[in-house]
């Protein structure tokens, strides 16, 4: 089985296992996903979802958050860790949205990458979830699982993993596939305990089952 054939089989099995899988960061406006994904660096999505409730309660739109002082943002987002740098990036980002994009987020990958605190992972997440464009989000779950599944060979650098996956994952499947990897990585192919291979829908095709 080639890597591309293996990828297609894994995609189909994960679809059946996690049919409703989506982004685990909660948001109802595009700019809020931009904020949440910055806060999620080295922090759990669950904690971010709690912290942003206070943030958006005090600053309910781009204009309000852009007008806030970074120090005031930091007071609220500190529980997510790296509070100062995250608050600085959020403040600068919201001011750019206010001043250059009429409060909207840019809709191209290149423009997103120019925003403070936005890297390839964040830009891919937004392109996939907000704009429905082909995207591959190489978070820690993705990197760990695609190595275990044999889709990439010993690659740990996010961009190298992303480039390798673009070659074997159909563009229209990439975003949902990565979301399903998060669900699978939390429930079955766990990082902090031995993977539950006996419960895995991929156990018969996974080269590292039981390891």
Can you walk me through this structure?
- The chain has two domains: about 80 residues, Helix-hairpin-Helix base-excision DNA repair enzymes (C-terminal) (Endonuclease Iii, domain 2, Orthogonal Bundle), CATH 1.10.1670.10; about 100 residues, Endonuclease III, domain 1.
- By secondary structure, the chain is an all-alpha fold.
- Helix 2 packs antiparallel against helix 6 and helix 5 packs across helix 6.
- The mean pLDDT is about 95.
- The protein contains eleven helices and no strands.
Concise synopsis of the structure shown:
With 211 residues, the protein is mainly alpha-helical. Helix content is 56%, strand content 0%.
